């Protein structure tokens, strides 16, 4: 089993889950449930930060992800280090895209 995979047993049936292929909302929900059970979700938070923005197209539009990647922002961690001012200066990011990004970052902070 690879580091980004986990086995889940439901009613005696084993299912292997690839965390890299899960969307942000599913990862977030899993994180919340694990935090309640284990009291720590740092592993999942690390996985989210290392994840390519491509996997978050449900939370951030494909157009916005494309513009960010064009400007060299490939991962969630790289996005988190960008200031609002730097993002606002990027060609192709309008107020709607900036609003998406701000909402996404706020959601990660919860």
Automatic annotation (TrEMBL):
Single GO MF annotation: DNA binding
Family matches, as InterPro entries: RNAP_asu_C
GO BP terms in the entry: DNA-templated transcription
One Pfam entry name: RNA_pol_A_CTD
Ranges of residues in domain RNA polymerase alpha subunit C-terminal: 59-104
Gene3D superfamilies: 5' to 3' exonuclease, C-terminal subdomain
Superkingdom to which the source organism belongs: Bacteria
Name of the protein in its database record: RNA polymerase alpha subunit C-terminal domain-containing protein
Species of provenance: Sphingobacterium multivorum
Lineage: Bacteria, Pseudomonadati, Bacteroidota, Sphingobacteriia, Sphingobacteriales
